[in-house]
């Protein structure tokens, strides 16, 4: 971005690149958070489903993430880190909070998935001589997670949209970039239109891919 | 580490924050009310089959797709900056209300479609066979059953509206998050202020969920399982 | 009196009723038998105007059901209907299920409507279930509730659409007993049924439907004793 910042200049080709870079930022942030959040969430979901003793602690704890606005969670964490003498970039802080948020959502869904695989089927797996771990890995998790796949896709799309909130920490993702451009170019509708198109381009492949997989699994 | 925290100024500001929490509730409730009305209209428009109604159907399809596939903050910016470009300048309250109502309507349209599909067509036929008018059958037989089917998603959406209203902070509305930010920036005790705000949000959401459950119990107890 | 003249009914290209002529007199009990898909249920829906017709006429006490300007809501009050899937209203108590239509359709005051409802519910043996919700009732009880609900409108005719087909075998008897009781009280009834015992014993006449037409109609002892049509013979051989 070597443009000299002057006010009220029109929208230029370079600005599109600026938006594309910011969209890449949105994608990185969401992909990383979803990957970490899913791994963590499946583990937590397994604990909720299989280790009943963890429920009194885990259930209310995970509930906090769904009962406090994400924007508040972001501000809180970002301001907490320096208090314990650490430093985190807005991107890193955003990743941590989004991952925790995603994990809380995935945990609930993963638990439902695991619990959807009934006892008879587990017994059948064990009766074939599988160990608990084998039955979990080869039967319960693949089947259970498949049933909640649509819900997981919903979380993925949700996290991608919610990543826009990391802009409050100063990270320039898609929406923050649009805001900057709007201030400079005063072409709000056009910039928002482009940003909206980017969001569609990010979320449609996911929806499309999910719909295709769902169809294939139903057969 | 305790010495790092200063809670006293936050506690002094607590009455202001609680008052702001009521603004949050009002905004969320109002946006839900508008969202329900618009959502019902969109749900009906999506099922129009007449060729003349095609524009209404396409509007509904586009609305739902936009509301569900873009961030709520994007929608808020649209009503803020976007309409500003057409010379329509709205107050922060109007921006948040418009954005949230737009979002609620998009999600609730799908909820209502599902709710109406959950009531078997045979219920309408049975009501008609007793001599009820279509209107009577709708209001007395179908709608109460739809209400039960959508109660849970409706509650979720209300919780969502409360959480989303915190975006008001970014467009200058002094609801709970906005008021918290205003107070915090004066004192630089950002963590403490937002921690208290988080607790208030948590309590508000829990009370809402609890209230909805109690009402559901009163309204729907004894009904057949869904 | 219900008169049906040259009734045709098409669903798209499929012609379900192919020219029905039939008259049912006041006080008569008519049973309609025949294989599934022979158009029996559709006929009932055409009689109370829940399905539009393609051709012909249906007259109920001289009123043309499908004529433009016929007040169907008013007409349906004369025609009680009981469905295969009993269709009780799950959000209303047993008493409210029965009292609702008398209140909002007939315009009775609440107390009067509930009195009518209570009387009908006692009549079908549900007098002790008034405050329950349908979910707490068995299928047979829900079907009797549906009968009471229709009777509370004080109809002139009752249409039964396979009222026992969806019930567990052990619950069929209580519903048939209720229908028998109605017949004995002189109610005019058209019963689409798979219960040959009931058709034979309770009906004044039996109509056999085959592919959208009345293949044979007559008194039950003729129909079951010495059927003329080979199709009816084959049908009876299969179901009896």
Automatic annotation (TrEMBL), chain A:
GO terms for molecular function: L-cystine transmembrane transporter activity. Gene3D superfamilies: MetI-like. Its main location: membrane. The keyword Membrane applies. Keywords: Amino-acid transport, Cell membrane, Membrane, Transmembrane, Transmembrane helix, Transport. It is found in: Cell inner membrane; Cell membrane. It is a multi-pass membrane protein. The keyword S-adenosyl-L-methionine does not apply. Pfam families: BPD_transp_1. The chain crosses the membrane at residues 29-49, 61-85, 91-114, 135-160, 188-211. SUPFAM superfamilies: MetI-like. Residues 23-210 form the ABC transmembrane type-1 domain. Belongs to the binding-protein-dependent transport system permease family. HisMQ subfamily. This is Polar amino acid transport system permease protein. It comes from Jhaorihella thermophila.
From TrEMBL, chain B:
CDD domains: TM_PBP2. Residues 21-212 form the ABC transmembrane type-1 domain. Keywords: Amino-acid transport, Cell membrane, Membrane, Transmembrane, Transmembrane helix, Transport. InterPro entries: AA_ABC_transptr_permease_3TM, ArtM/GltK/GlnP/TcyL/YhdX-like, MetI-like, MetI-like_sf. It is a multi-pass membrane protein. One of its GO terms (molecular function) is L-cystine transmembrane transporter activity. It is found in: Cell inner membrane; Cell membrane. Pfam families: BPD_transp_1. GO terms for cellular component: ATP-binding cassette (ABC) transporter complex. The keyword Transcription does not apply. It comes from the Bacteria. The chain crosses the membrane at residues 20-42, 78-102, 158-178, 190-216. Belongs to the binding-protein-dependent transport system permease family. HisMQ subfamily. This is Polar amino acid transport system permease protein. It comes from Jhaorihella thermophila.
Automatic annotation (TrEMBL), chain C:
It comes from the Bacteria. Its main location: membrane. Keywords: Amino-acid transport, ATP-binding, Cell membrane, Membrane, Nucleotide-binding, Transport. GO terms for cellular component: plasma membrane. The keyword Nucleotide-binding applies. It is a peripheral membrane protein. This is Polar amino acid transport system ATP-binding protein.
């Amino acid at each position: 971005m070597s443009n000299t910042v002057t006010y009220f200049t029109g929208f230029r080709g370079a600005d599109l690149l600026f938006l594309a870079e910011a969209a890449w930022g949105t994608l990185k942030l969401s992909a990383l958070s979803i990957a970490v959040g899913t791994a963590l969430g499946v583990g937590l979901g397994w604990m909720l489903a299989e280790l009943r003793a963890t429920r009194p602690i885990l259930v209310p704890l995970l509930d906090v993430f769904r009962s406090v606005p994400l924007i508040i969670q972001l501000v809180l964490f970002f301001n907490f880190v320096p208090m314990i003498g650490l430093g985190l970039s807005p991107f890193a802080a955003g990743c941590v909070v989004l991952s925790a948020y995603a994990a809380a959502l995935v945990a609930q869904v993963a638990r439902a998935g695991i619990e959807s695989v009934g006892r008879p089927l587990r017994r059948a797996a064990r009766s074939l001589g599988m160990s608990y771990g084998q039955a979990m890995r080869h039967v319960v998790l693949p089947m259970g997670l498949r049933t909640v796949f649509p819900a997981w896709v919903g979380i993925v799309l949700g996290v991608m949209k919610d990543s826009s909130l990391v802009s409050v920490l100063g990270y320039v993702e898609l929406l923050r970039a649009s805001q900057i451009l709007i201030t400079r170019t005063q072409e709000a509708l056009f910039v928002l239109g482009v940003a909206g198109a980017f969001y569609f381009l990010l979320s449609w492949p996911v929806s499309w891919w999910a719909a295709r997989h769902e169809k294939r699994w139903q057969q | 580490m305790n010495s790092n925290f200063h809670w006293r100024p936050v506690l002094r500001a607590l009455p202001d924050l609680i008052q702001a929490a009521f603004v949050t509730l009002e905004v969320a409730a109002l946006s839900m009310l508008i969202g329900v009305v618009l959502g019902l209209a969109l749900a009906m428009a999506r099922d129009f089959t007449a060729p003349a109604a095609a524009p209404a159907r396409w509007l509904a399809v586009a609305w739902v797709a936009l509301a569900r596939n873009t961030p709520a903050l994007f929608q808020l910016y649209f009503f803020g900056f976007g309409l500003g470009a057409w010379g329509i300048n709205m107050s922060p309250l109007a921006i948040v209300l418009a954005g949230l109502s737009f979002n609620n309507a998009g999600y609730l349209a799908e909820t209502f479609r599902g709710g109406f599909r959950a009531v078997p067509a045979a219920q309408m036929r049975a009501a008609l066979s007793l001599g009820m008018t279509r209107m009577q059958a709708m209001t007395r037989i179908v709608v109460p059953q739809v209400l039960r089917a959508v109660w849970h998603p409706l509650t979720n959406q209300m919780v969502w509206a409360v959480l989303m209203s915190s975006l008001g902070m970014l467009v200058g509305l002094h609801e709970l998050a906005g008021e918290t930010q205003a107070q915090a920036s004066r004192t630089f005790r950002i963590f403490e202020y937002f921690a208290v705000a988080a607790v208030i949000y948590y309590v508000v959401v829990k009370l809402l969920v609890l209230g909805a459950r109690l009402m559901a119990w009163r309204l729907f107890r004894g009904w057949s399982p869904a | 009196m219900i008169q049906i003249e040259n009734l045709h009914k098409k669903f798209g290209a499929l012609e379900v009723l192919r020219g029905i002529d039939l008259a049912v007199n006041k006080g008569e009990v008519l049973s309609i038998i025949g294989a599934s898909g022979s158009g029996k249920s559709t006929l009932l829906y055409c009689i109370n105007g829940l399905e539009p017709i393609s051709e012909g006429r249906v007259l109920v006490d001289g009123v043309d059901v499908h004529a433009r300007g016929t007040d169907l809501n008013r007409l349906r009050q004369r025609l009680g209907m009981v469905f295969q899937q009993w269709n009780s209203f799950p959000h209303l108590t047993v008493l409210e299920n029965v009292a609702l239509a008398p209140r909002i359709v007939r315009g009775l005051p609440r107390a009067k409507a509930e009195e009518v409802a209570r009387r009908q519910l006692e009549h079908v043996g549900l007098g002790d279930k008034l405050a329950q919700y349908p979910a707490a009732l068995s299928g047979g009880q829900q079907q009797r509730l549906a009968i009471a609900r229709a009777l509370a409108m004080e109809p002139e005719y009752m249409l039964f659409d396979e009222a026992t087909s969806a019930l567990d075998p052990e619950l069929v008897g209580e519903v048939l007993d209720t229908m028998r009781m109605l017949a004995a009280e002189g109610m005019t009834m058209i019963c689409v049924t798979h219960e040959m015992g009931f058709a034979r014993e309770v009906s004044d006449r039996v109509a056999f439907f085959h592919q959208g037409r009345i293949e044979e109609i007559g008194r039950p002892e003729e129909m079951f004793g010495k059927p003329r049509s080979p199709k009816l013979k084959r049908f009876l051989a299969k179901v009896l």
